[in-house]
């Protein structure tokens, strides 16, 4: 079933070899750019256009046409490429339209080599723009997706390239238009004064996967032949065109049906429109299955993402939900900001005239401005609510299907828990949500093994629900959160492959640490006092040094016998009590060098209480991922600028799931040690 995208939506791509079909109703220039993670183009050699139509994994048309077919092989693009942007532009210097608002909305579809559509997008809302980024194929977590962009530029290709940070934007835009102009003059002669007889098949037949009755142009990545073996200029109906669908069958001067002569002239002008081309957006295809409820889309499916296994598909689906929520919320905030600035501008214009400041005319103008503001915000909210409802329906089917490593503690999957034999690809450290979409929670998944340690901030904080926790309560909650994280890490690793150490200098965390101590999953009782701190830190620091030397020397088998090679987690409670400058330096060393050799750090501390170490502590603070034992909006998202609210994965009150899981981990470890 084809995914009909709207602006900003994305969809996973099923394969690397694709075809992008463009129908514009008027001759347009089709091209593509290869960008990095930020979408930046690093040179004109990363732009495929009519003057240079071929790049690794990409080929575009050589001239302007109403219909195009672009061939894409994502496996062949360079590894540094993370975005493939498909762009359309109106030719300049001719008698054609100068803006997209004067023509039918362009239609873009991504298809497989078999012609089946994967996703489609009708680019609506264009007015004065003469160039537009239609689609974006982007790499996310090792998989490729397509996103509907629809970003238009009134300044044409020059403005589009400049927005993608291309230094030679104006020169490249000029050379593209020159190449297109010469190509049009060479390949499109003046129409004769005669028209063919009426064609019985002309009309508005629905668009099919292979373009109706028009034979598909060969792709340069044709599965039936070698790459680049498609028809060249001699095989194409339009001279000089390669790999592009013609604006009408046969080309100028040829018959619509192969082997038949063109109709004689004398009956009127030639109709150059495609006999199968629709001037309006195509109707939506019938759903493959009836919707779950009247008026709602079909029910989502868990694991509906790319991946080699169900675990990988669910991981990619969760991150896709995160991206979708971030994008739709950013669009809503942008729309609200626009409505605010527009109302402010309109009010300024009204108040700039002293005659309108007092009286009925000024009041009416102010009410009209506020009404337009309310209408814009209401429309944006409707779109946000629609997208959130769709994501909520997806979350309702994804959450029960998550494996234990991805699931909340209240998920029934923990009742059927068994100690795994393989390390999962990720771990759930909590939930994320945004204030505009408080109904939905996105799992916060972190890849394993951990690339950085954790700092559970036990400082005094006012939670988002208005309650206030004092320092004693926050320390207790912080250590309980750390225990929940440690238990989850122990539960998802195979027996004997994860070891937990605890430093509790003053013994203040005995109650919170009881599940770990009583179950027997700790390597040793929690270390107390300055001597215990020194002994544990020295042992783990020595382990990091030995493993580093063995790896750098290319002799991992030369480690001392009896050295524990499992992943190590050190939980530090009540910091900085019992620590001196040397111990803090050892902590910094473990935080910086430990993750690369399987030693991870989890601090439970108040940042303000630890400030006595001054600059000595700052590198340690920056190197760890800060989490909180209460809900707090502190996680910054540089992608769209959101501050996500983080909620820790606490065990439900009264639940015995933590003790049951740790008992199984301890039993599996005893069996493994025998």
Largest sheet: 12 strands, mixed
Q: In terms of per-residue confidence, which ranges show pLDDT below 50 for 5 or more consecutive residues?
A: 185-291
Whole-number mean pLDDT: 79
**Spatial extent as radius of gyration:** 31 Å
Helix content: 25-40%
How far apart are the first and last residues' alpha carbons, in Å? Answer: 54 Å
Given helix and strand content, the structural type is alpha+beta
Strand tally is 23
What is the secondary structure topology, with strand pairs?
Blueprint: E1 3-5, E2 10-12, E3 17-35, E4 47-48, E5 54-55, E6 58-59, E7 65-73, E8 83-89, E9 107-112, E10 117-122, E11 131-140, E12 143-153, H1 156-163, H2 169-187, H3 310-351, H4 360-401, E13 426-433, E14 442-447, E15 454-457, E16 461-462, E17 468-469, H5 471-492, E18 498-503, H6 514-519, H7 529-552, E19 567-575, H8 581-593, E20 599-605, H9 618-623, E21 625-627, E22 632-637, E23 642-647, H10 657-673
Parallel strand pairs: 1-10, 15-20, 15-21, 18-19, 19-20
Antiparallel strand pairs: 2-12, 3-4, 3-7, 3-8, 3-9, 5-6, 6-7, 8-11, 9-10, 11-12, 13-14, 13-23, 16-17, 22-23
Describe this structure in words.
Strand 6 (58-59) and strand 7 (65-73) form a beta hairpin. The protein is α+β, with helices and mostly antiparallel strands. It has helices at residues 156-163, 169-187, 310-351, 360-401, 471-492, 514-519, 529-552, 581-593, 618-623, 657-673, and strands at residues 3-5, 10-12, 17-35, 47-48, 54-55, 58-59, 65-73, 83-89, 107-112, 117-122, 131-140, 143-153, 426-433, 442-447, 454-457, 461-462, 468-469, 498-503, 567-575, 599-605, 625-627, 632-637, 642-647. The two termini are 54 Å apart. 30% of the residues lie in helices and 21% in strands.
């Amino acid at each position: 079933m084809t995914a009909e995208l709207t602006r900003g939506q994305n969809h996973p791509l099923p394969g690397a070899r694709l075809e992008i079909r463009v129908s514009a109703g008027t001759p347009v220039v089709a091209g593509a750019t290869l960008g990095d993670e930020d979408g930046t183009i690093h040179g004109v050699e990363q732009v495929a256009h009519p003057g240079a139509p071929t790049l690794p994994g990409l080929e575009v048309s050589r001239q302007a046409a109403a219909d195009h077919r672009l061939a894409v092989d994502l496996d062949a693009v360079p590894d540094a490429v993370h975005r493939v942007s498909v762009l359309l532009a109106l030719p300049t210097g001719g008698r054609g339209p100068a803006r997209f608002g004067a023509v039918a909305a362009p239609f873009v579809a991504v298809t497989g080599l078999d012609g089946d559509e994967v996703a489609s997008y009708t680019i609506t809302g264009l007015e004065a723009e003469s160039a537009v980024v239609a689609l974006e194929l982007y790499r996310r977590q090792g998989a490729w997706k397509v996103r509907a962009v629809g970003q238009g530029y009134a300044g044409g290709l020059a403005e589009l390239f400049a927005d993608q940070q291309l230094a030679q934007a104006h020169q490249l835009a000029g050379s593209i238009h020159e190449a297109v102009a010469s190509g049009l003059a060479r390949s499109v002669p003046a129409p004769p004064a005669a028209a063919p007889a009426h064609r019985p098949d002309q009309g508005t037949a629905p668009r099919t996967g292979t373009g109706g009755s028009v034979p598909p142009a060969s792709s340069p990545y044709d599965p039936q032949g070698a790459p680049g073996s498609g028809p060249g200029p001699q095989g194409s109906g339009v001279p000089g065109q390669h790999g592009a669908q013609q604006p009408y069958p046969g080309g100028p001067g040829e018959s619509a049906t192969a082997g038949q002569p063109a109709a004689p002239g004398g009956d009127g002008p030639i109709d150059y429109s495609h006999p199968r081309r629709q001037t309006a957006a195509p109707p939506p295809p019938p759903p493959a299955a009836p919707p779950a409820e009247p008026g709602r889309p079909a029910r989502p499916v868990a694991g509906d993402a790319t991946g080699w296994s169900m675990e990988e598909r669910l991981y990619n689906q969760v991150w896709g939900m995160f991206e979708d929520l971030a994008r739709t919320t950013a669009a809503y905030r942008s729309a609200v900001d626009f409505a605010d600035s527009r109302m402010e501008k309109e009010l300024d214009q009204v108040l700039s005239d002293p005659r309108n400041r007092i009286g009925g005319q000024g009041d009416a103008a102010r009410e009209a401005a506020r009404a337009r503001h309310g209408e814009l915000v209401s429309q944006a909210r409707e779109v946000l609510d629609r997208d959130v409802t769709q994501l909520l329906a997806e979350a309702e089917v994804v959450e029960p299907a998550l494996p234990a490593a991805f699931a909340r503690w209240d998920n029934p999957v923990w009742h059927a828990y068994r100690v795994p034999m393989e390390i999962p690809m990720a771990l759930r450290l909590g939930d994320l949500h945004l204030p505009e979409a408080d109904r939905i929670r996105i799992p916060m998944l972190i890849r394993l093994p951990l690339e950085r340690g954790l700092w559970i901030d036990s400082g005094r904080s006012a939670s988002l629900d208005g309650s206030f926790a004092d320092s004693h309560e926050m320390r207790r909650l912080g250590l309980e959160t750390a225990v929940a994280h440690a238990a989850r890490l122990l539960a998802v690793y195979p027996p004997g492959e994860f070891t937990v150490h605890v430093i509790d200098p003053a013994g203040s965390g005995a109650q919170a640490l009881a599940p770990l101590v009583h179950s027997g999953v700790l390597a040793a009782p929690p270390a107390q006092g300055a001597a215990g701190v020194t002994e544990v830190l020295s042992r783990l620091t020595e382990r990091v040094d030995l493993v580093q030397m063995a790896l750098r020397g290319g002799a991992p088998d030369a480690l001392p016998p009896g050295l524990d090679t499992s992943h190590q987690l050190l939980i530090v409670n009540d910091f900085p009590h019992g620590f001196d400058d040397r111990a803090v330096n050892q902590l910094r060393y473990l935080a910086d060098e430990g993750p690369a050799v399987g030693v991870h750090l989890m601090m439970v501390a108040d940042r303000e209480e630890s400030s006595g170490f001054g600059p000595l502590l700052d590198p340690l603070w920056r190197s760890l991922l800060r989490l909180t034992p209460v809900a707090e909006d502190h996680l910054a998202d540089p992608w769209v600028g959101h501050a996500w609210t983080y909620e820790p994965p606490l065990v439900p009150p009264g639940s015995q799931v933590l003790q049951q899981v740790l008992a199984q981990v301890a039993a599996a470890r005893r069996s493994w040690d025998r």
